[in-house]
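Much of what follows relies on a compact textual record of a protein's fold. A record is reproduced here so that you can trace the correspondence yourselves:
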Amino acid sequence: MKEQSSVQELIKRNNKNKGKVLADKAVPIILLIIASVSVLTTIGILFTLITETATFFTRVNPLEFLFTKDWAPFSSDPKYGIFALVLGTLKVTAVATIFAVPVGLGAALYLSEYASDRSRRIIKPILEILAGIPTIVYGFFALTFVTPILRGIFPDLGSFNSISPGLVVGVMIIPMITSMSEDAMSSVPESIKEGALGLGATKFELATKIVFPAALSGIIASVVLAISRAIGETMIVSLAAGSTPDSSFSLIGSIQTMTGFIVQVATGDATYGSDIYYSIYAVGFTLFIFTFIMNIISQWVTKRFREEY
């Protein structure tokens, strides 16, 4: 009969195993180094962004950058008013948000409260495929498919405009809104839903008056993060929005967004060390501020409206 060991003997035996002791000491250090890579990378990017932006502002008056409307860095008399690029970005983001929020939330509500398991198994993978399509493909789709259709409806619409890329950016962020909102709605306890149904609520009342308000923090957070994603979108707007900074509120003409300008300069339209070269860091820093604020709003909304069951 095999002799059984006591717990104390097993502990002593394990402590004598040098391989296990070494692994226990080394693994936390390795994981700490891996975790530090992302932190150091973020610090490095921020340091580069801030120092190069500071260099730009030693050459261009910050007041001109913030409070003038003309953006013409390639002209003989360069203008660096960021307003036109910010407005172009916001126009595309507004169109995308108006299109994506109702569609995304409607899809989330359907998947959470109305869809059968079979329908959910079919629709969710299709949405995930949408999220996996490269944005360059979305850009060509906007330029060669959506824009011609819209021009057939609105003849005054330009080949490059705000509506076409805005709609396609909206399509791109629908999976994010749907997936995160559906998760928030599905996390509402079944006891609350059953209680509402037991009190005589209809399916529609359950969805709109119980589930939707209960999941509001997750829903708003998904919308805010999706808007942040739309603000930073690059390839779609570079292909379908044009490259003409526009300070008007018109949606039918060519515009340029902050990301679109960065792509234009980064692909070789400026020499290293020039004012235009440093301007991409100032534009990038402005874009960073926008997305940073959106992320803070998302976190605040999540904490402010969070429901704990």
User: Anything to note?
Assistant: Strands lie at 71-72, 79-80.
